[in-house]
Amino acid sequence: MEALYLAVIAGGVVGYFGVEIADMTAPFVNFAGGCNIKGNVSIGSGERIYHVPGQEYYDETKISPQYGERWFCSEAEARAAGWRRAGR
């Protein structure tokens, strides 16, 4: 919930300066609801890859909404959105 709160505050500050932003809270809402699949965008290729708990790099993977990364509630949801499962 702290991440959601910080995103809301950040959105308000950015909005105050007259910059339009997308809904920055959307990527955090799923996490707050118990969704734990991490949708990560590869820095090198831009490929959209999701990680499930127990995979090798799950704990190290950080979600950065500003880069289009997000949380998913199911693998089916991630695949439907065009993401592929991580290899390890």
Write the topology of this structure.
Elements lengths: L1 H15 L9 H7 L4 E5 L6 E4 L18 E3 L2 H6 L3 E2 L3
Parallel strand pairs: 2-4
Antiparallel strand pairs: 1-2, 1-3
Give a summary of the structure in a few sentences:
The protein has 88 residues and is an alpha+beta fold.
Task: Give an account of the 3D structure.
- The chain is an alpha+beta fold.
- The chain contains three helices and four strands, in the order H-H-E-E-E-H-E.
- It has helices at residues 2-16, 26-32, 75-80, and strands spanning 37-41, 48-51, 70-72, 84-85.
- It has a four-stranded mixed sheet.
- Strand 1 (37-41) and strand 2 (48-51) form a beta hairpin.
- Residues 12-17 and 19-27 have low confidence and may be disordered.
Sum up the structure in keywords.
globular, about 15% strand, alpha+beta, about 90 residues
How many E strands?
A: 4
* C-alpha end-to-end distance: 29 Å
User: What structural class is derived from the secondary structure elements?
Assistant: alpha+beta
Uncertain spans, ≥5 residues at pLDDT below 50?
A: 12-17, 19-27
- Sheet-strand content, in percent, reads 15-25%
Provide the residue-averaged pLDDT. Answer: 78
